[in-house]
Request: fold
Amino acid sequence: MNGLDERLMMLFHHVPQCECVADIGTDHGYLPIALVSKRKCNKAIACDISAPSLKKAETHSRLQGIPLDCRISNGLSALEQEEADCIVIAGMGGILISEILTQGKEKINDATLVLQPMTAVKELREYLCNYGFSILKEDMVFQEEKLYHVLVAKKGEENQEYDCEIGSGLKNHPLYGKYLMKRKDKELEILKQMGSFRGEKYQKHKKLLEKLEQEEAT
Reply:
């Protein structure tokens, strides 16, 4: 669908039917083009800090005959307050996504956030749960054996009981078993690389491995 791979398709499915979507870090613009062409939204704002990337989005928009509102934007800076009903931030690390949300918090209002952190998923969960957001759902997909996450969130009641290490929203997911196995393998590799070192960092990873094993056994 309009050049969408599995990772982008997962984002597509979690964007609600709405008037206006803003895609932050749009790059080629594949996602907003698909959202407009399939009538999931009436308008899409394609934002990127990179002028060359935005040029690619403009070119694809023209070739597909799908109008995009393309804007150079550092995070949410180019958005007006309450302009977007849904804000997609994907293809960057969880720490950077957290910073973008902090800097643009007044632009978010009641918008649905569809977030895809490439790293620091735990840290993004912790940020959302502690800074005025509610995680509504999580999803994941394996593409070429690489794991991709999606977190859907809105401003709302903080949930400090949320399992940010593993992800409470993933526990009924059909890929949960494979996810736990991949996480376990990663922790085992980290412990192996530490060798005879038994400091605080070792104990932290050992404790996480034990938690993953317990979760797998339930």
Observations:
- Residues 176-217 form one domain.
- Residues 176-194 form the longest helix (19 residues).
- Helices lie at 6-14, 30-37, 51-64, 94-103, 105-108, 121-130, 176-194, 200-217.
